[in-house]
């Protein structure tokens, strides 16, 4: 899901939230995001956090921050609730 935060913060425009079932899936999703963004936009994240435990990996692309959680951590932090006033965009298969 994508949260459009342009009306709420000045430091970035959007959060992308994804989740995997375990640490291997979380790492695989984060790696694939990095690979596809680099191929499509020739852009690498300026900072990556959380790789060691892979409970929550954050990829900072400046205006867009990608968060890849394991399911338990995503539920605990519930970023969707924290930013509930922001417009939300979901992939068609999640609607």
What is the number of domains?
1
Oligomer: single chain
Q: What structural class do the secondary elements suggest?
A: alpha+beta
Q: Just give the CATH class.
A: Alpha Beta
Beta-strand residue fraction: 25-35%
Q: Identify the strand order in the major beta sheet.
A: 3-4-5-2-1-6
Q: With helices defined by DSSP (H or I, 4 residues minimum), what is the helix count?
A: 3
What are the low-pLDDT stretches, counting only 5+ consecutive residues below 50?
none
Overall, the morphology is globular
Describe this structure in words.
Helices cover 32% and strands 28% of the residues. Strands 3-4-5-2-1-6 form a six-stranded mixed beta sheet. The chain has 95 residues and is an alpha+beta fold. The longest helix has 19 residues, at 23-41. The model has no long low-confidence stretch (mean pLDDT 93). It starts with a strand and ends in a 6-residue tail after the last strand. It contains three helices and six strands. A hairpin with a 6-residue loop joins strand 3 and strand 4. It has helices spanning 23-41, 71-77, 79-82, and strands at residues 2-4, 14-20, 47-49, 56-60, 64-70, 88-89. It has a single domain (2-90), classed as Beta Polymerase, domain 2, CATH 3.30.460.
Index terms:
Beta Polymerase, domain 2, 3 helices, globular, single chain, 6-stranded mixed sheet, alpha+beta, 95 residues
Topology:
Layout: E1 2-4, E2 14-20, H1 23-41, E3 47-49, E4 56-60, E5 64-70, H2 71-77, H3 79-82, E6 88-89
Parallel strand pairs: 2-5
Antiparallel strand pairs: 1-2, 1-6, 3-4, 4-5
């Amino acid at each position: 899901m994508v949260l459009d935060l342009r009306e709420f913060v000045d430091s970035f425009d959007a959060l992308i939230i994804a989740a995997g079932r375990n640490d291997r899936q979380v790492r695989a999703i984060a790696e694939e995001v990095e690979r596809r963004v680099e191929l499509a936009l020739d852009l690498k994240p300026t900072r990556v956090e959380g790789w060691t435990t892979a409970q929550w990996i954050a990829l900072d692309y400046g205006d867009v921050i990608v968060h890849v959680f394991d399911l338990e951590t995503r539920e605990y932090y519930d970023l969707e609730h924290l930013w509930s006033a922001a417009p939300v965009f979901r992939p068609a298969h999640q609607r």
